[in-house]
Design brief:
The structure holds two protein chains of two kinds. Chain A is an alpha/beta fold. Chain A has two domains: about 240 residues, Rossmann fold, CATH 3.40.50.970; about 130 residues, Rossmann fold. Chain A is about 40% helix and about 20% strand. Chain A is globular, with a radius of gyration of 21 Å. Chain B has one domain: Rossmann fold, CATH 3.40.50.970. Chain B is built from eleven helices and eight strands. In chain B, strand 5, helix 7 and strand 6 form a beta-alpha-beta unit. The radius of gyration of chain B is 18 Å and the shape is globular. The two termini of chain B are about 30 Å apart. The mean pLDDT of chain B is about 95. The chains are: A alpha/beta, B alpha/beta.
């Protein structure tokens, strides 16, 4: 069935089709319509779920950690300051090895108050042990929510599905809504190995001494390492069932490219248009969309970028004192390789500033025209 | 009324509490009252140590350890999840300290109480952050010594009235109990178990290390807290109906304060002020029990 849906409604449909059993959430712009739509689904009986209307995002994450350990498929959605408030519990969810799915609408952190898109909120949660998947369009958002539960319930790590504020959250597109029966076939009910149950008394998450703690963290890392392959298989299976896939990495016109631009989120769509135009003019430029940020699919990225002379990375985020975060990840991926691309790190579109085709073209030309970046951080469209 | 204390045990002797601690006694009695179809949520507190480290447990029912400020909302999540699985029989209990209840956990607790989420919340109140080594909380009594309210820089504010705060959410049941009165405590838990919605038990649990008392005196001192009317035993139903469940002797507060090192520095005048405060609050409670507004 085709419907015109905003990114936020696509999230809600994904959650409904995944037969989530417990939702707990707190409203924040621009996530709010997810919460509203899910409330409606629960009220009108389209979803059979408990919706806990908590008093904060911190309690939202804490309560679904509890519902998940008790064996119910659990979901929350947030954005920006809400995600930051959850920070402590994000560590807890991952350390507790719970297959929770969270939709985060990428929004800038204050001050000053800014409700527009920026990856600073989710990337600040890099080291919490969450899988992070960045979406480009609303179809990908809906499909990724469903895939996220399957990935999470395979590797026992939580998944954050990320979508850009307004460009996706509040922009409507025609998308295909999968049939419920087909989703049921793809995503069977959640059957955890252990669940809180008076018939099998166990103690969960008690004091963990130096004798054990490190091994638990080692296992989390191993699970992260397995996730790249698990996510690839899940996407393949999704493709067989629904006739479309959403790769962890999506190279576009990278064959013979002298320069490859690396993007994530909706900047990808704009970049694709720019690159198509430049290719018509004979410019040898390609694009690599990175969907999976954690785990960072290093080997797969090497497979695309090894041998490329220059790589331009567009970051809608900044790690103060160092630079764009995707650029750092790309650099570190190659640091031990004999043959490695020169990485140009561009910062664009912070706090929702429009990333225009002209801005992307400027970044591409800079990368083409310079042997090396003249500055470690290349700011585009900055008023100096 | 004589209440039978169940013989069955759901707590083993191998827990890690200090000698004379009131908390494990409270949990042991609570599990006797509530039975094996119970799950316990424990936020950061003395109890997170007492029940044993990974991979051990001193308790015969499932435990989920949760972050400090999340006892109530975690209980909400477990309840919702059990409901979705068709389990209406299991009782969900949150067991938090005074820090986790009066201070850092009050937001989540207030949220859950306003929603009237269905669980029993037990605040094991030893009147300071004892697990971190005796720092004041908002449950610490007026003028009591702690490491962050040393003599010379006293706590000049009274203990927060958590019972009134909880009752004013309109929850179906709130009760103050003390481990030195096991029949009263068990009676309240059994009553709470039969009620749906948020049920709050404020349980006074003596702490020998923090109160500066001998470990074999803790029950005696806890009993004095009740007999002096410092900690009355009562319940509030539906946020309105107040009932005193044990009539105290009205022993002078000096008998209670003088037993404890944490009050050793008090002057006669300060003891007199505390007596006045206790009398005033007791009168207020009596009026509320009589249905007279105050």
């Amino acid at each position: 069935m085709k419907r015109v849906l905003s990114g936020n409604k696509a999230v809600a449909y994904g959650v409904m089709l995944s037969r989530v059993q417990v939702i707990s959430a707190y409203p924040i712009t621009p996530q709010t319509t997810i919460v509203e739509e899910l409330s409606r689904f629960c009220a009108e009986g389209e979803m059979e779920a408990k919706f806990i209307k908590v008093e904060s995002e911190h309690s939202a994450m804490a309560s679904i950690i509890a519902s998940s350990v008790t064996g119910s498929r659990s979901f929350t959605a947030t954005s920006s300051h809400g995600l930051a408030l959850m920070h402590e519990m994000l560590h807890w969810a991952a350390g507790a090895r719970l297959p929770i799915v969270l939709a985060n609408v990428n929004r800038a952190m204050g001050p000053g108050w800014n409700i527009w898109t920026d990856q600073g909120d989710s990337l600040s949660q890099r080291d919490t042990g969450w899988i992070q998947l960045y979406c480009e369009d609303n179809q990908e958002v809906l499909d990724t929510i469903i895939q996220a539960f399957k990935i999470a319930e395979t590797v026992y790590l939580p998944v954050m599905v990320v979508l850009d504020a307004f460009f996706l959250s509040h922009t409507s597109e025609v998308i295909e809504i999968p049939h419920r029966e087909e989703v049921d076939h793809f995503l069977p009910p959640f059957e955890p190995q252990y669940r809180l149950n008076p018939k099998e008394p166990r103690s969960y998450y008690g004091m963990c001494s130096p004798d054990y703690y490190m091994e638990f963290r080692y296992k989390m890392q191993r699970a992260m390492e397995e996730t790249v392959e698990v996510a690839r298989v899940v996407d393949e299976e999704f493709g067989r069932q629904f006739g479309r896939t959403h790769s962890l990495l999506e190279p576009y016109r990278c064959e013979d490219a002298e320069v490859v631009m690396v993007t994530s989120g909706t900047v990808t769509s704009t970049s694709r248009v720019v690159i198509e135009r430049l290719r018509e003019d004979g410019v040898k430029v390609g694009l690599l969309k990175v969907k999976m940020f954690r785990p960072f699919p290093k080997e797969e990225i090497k497979g695309v970028l090894q041998g490329v002379e220059k790589v331009g990375v567009i970051d809608r985020n900044i790690s103060f004192g160092h630079g764009g975060i995707f650029a750092q990840e790309i650099r570190s991926t190659f640091c031990n390789e004999d043959e490695r691309p020169t990485v140009f790190g561009f910062i664009m579109g912070l706090g929702g500033r429009d990333v225009t085709p002209e801005a992307i073209e400027e970044a591409i030309h800079y990368t083409l025209d310079n042997h090396r970046p003249k500055e470690e951080i290349l700011w585009i469209d900055l008023k100096r | 009324m004589k209440i039978h204390i169940p013989k069955e045990e759901h707590m083993g002797p191998g827990h890690l509490a200090c000698a004379g601690c009131g908390s494990p006694l409270g949990l042991r009695l609570a599990l006797k009252a509530l039975g094996e179809e119970t799950v316990i949520v424990i936020p950061a507190s003395c109890m997170s140590i007492i029940v044993g480290p990974f991979p051990y447990s001193a308790i015969g029912v499932p435990i989920v350890h949760v972050a400090f400020e999340t006892a109530a909302c975690s209980a909400s999540g477990i309840r919702a999840s059990l409901d979705m699985q068709g389990d209406r029989k299991t009782t969900v209990v949150a067991w938090a300290g005074d820090g986790g209840t009066f201070d850092i956990g009050i937001q989540a607790l207030s949220g859950a109480a306003e929603r009237n989420d269905d669980f029993i919340y037990i605040c094991s109140d030893n009147e300071a952050y004892m697990n971190t080594g005796i720092q004041r909380s908002s449950a610490t009594p007026y003028l009591a010594w702690t490491t962050t309210t040393p003599v010379g820089n006293p706590k000049e504010r009274p203990k927060k009235d958590m019972m009134a705060i909880m009752a004013d959410h309109g929850i179906p049941y709130a009760a103050a109990a003390c481990v030195a009165y096991p029949e009263d405590f068990i009676g309240k838990l059994k009553k709470a178990k039969g009620i749906k919605g948020t049920r709050f038990i404020h349980l006074l649990t003596p702490c020998p290390a923090g109160w500066r008392i001998a470990s074999n005196e803790s029950i005696k001192v806890a009993r004095l807290a009740v007999e002096t009317k410092v900690f009355p035993l009562y319940e509030i139903e539906g946020g309105e109906v107040h009932t005193i469940t044990y009539q105290p002797k009205g022993t002078p507060v000096e008998a209670y304060l003088s037993q404890q090192g944490r009050f050793r520095h008090l002057t006669k005048e300060e003891v007199a002020t505390i007596q006045e405060n206790v009398d005033r609050r007791w009168d207020r409670l009596v009026k509320r029990c009589e249905g007279r507004a105050n």
